[in-house]
Amino acid sequence: MKYCKKCKRLFGDSEQFCPECKKHYPLEALTDNNTPVYLASASNFELDRIQAALSDSGIPNATQAKPKSISAEAVTGSNNSEMDILVPYSALNAARDVCIGIGAIKIDGEETVVDAQNIDNAENSEPSEIEELSPAKKTTVKIISAILLIILFCAVIWGTDFITGLIKGFFG
């Protein structure tokens, strides 16, 4: 088994250069079972979900920025770029099993499994039409919502005053 030191991907022994890297780095023999190797690429929530599942399974993992990935982290404060998830070579099969179990990695040729009950419910239900509100309707809804909120606050305050008055009447 050979791997690329730059992108950490695994390749067969017959490969000489990394096809993933732009400059075709030479591949090296994988001799240490603790060498970090590529598992998957993910970003944001999916990245957090995979890392949490691996950590819960006791599989050490790390992330590596994809080569030449552009991130707006300095501007937005959050990293939206895709990261490579690395695991030790000795834990690669267990990590793949965990990722397949949570649906983060799909087996080649596998179709997405859908719950049969959800399909039956979807077939039996009538299609619903979602109407986009016009600006006038949006404004009307906002005004009515504000009026109802004010009425609700008034009812709570008046109700509290009424109950307080009753309690004072019993003891006063």
How would you sum up this structure, described in words?
- The strands form 2 sheets. A 3-stranded antiparallel sheet has the order 2-1-3, with no helix packed on it.
- The N and C termini lie far apart (89 Å).
- About 5% of the residues have low confidence.
- With 172 residues, it is α+β, with helices and mostly antiparallel strands.
- The protein is built from 5 helices and 6 strands; from the N terminus they run E-E-E-E-H-E-H-E-H-H-H.
- It is elongated, with a radius of gyration of 29 Å.
- Strand 1 and strand 2 form a beta hairpin.
Instruction: Please bin the fraction of helical residues.
Output: 40-55%
**Largest sheet geometry:** 3 strands, antiparallel
Sheet with the most strands: spatial strand order: 2-1-3
Please state the average pLDDT score: 80
| SSE topology string | EEEEHEHEHHH
Kindly name the structural category.
alpha+beta
Low-confidence stretches: 112-120
Say how many strands there are. Answer: 6
| Oligomer classification | single chain
Distance between the termini: 89 Å
Shape: elongated
Give the number of helices: 5
Strand content: 5-15%
Please compute the radius of gyration using only Cα atoms: 29 Å
Explain the layout of strands and helices.
Elements: E1 2-3, E2 10-11, E3 28-29, E4 36-42, H1 44-56, E5 62-65, H2 73-76, E6 83-88, H3 92-102, H4 116-124, H5 135-171
Keywords:
5 helices, 172 residues, three-stranded antiparallel beta sheet
What is this entry, summarized?
With 172 residues, the chain is an alpha+beta fold.
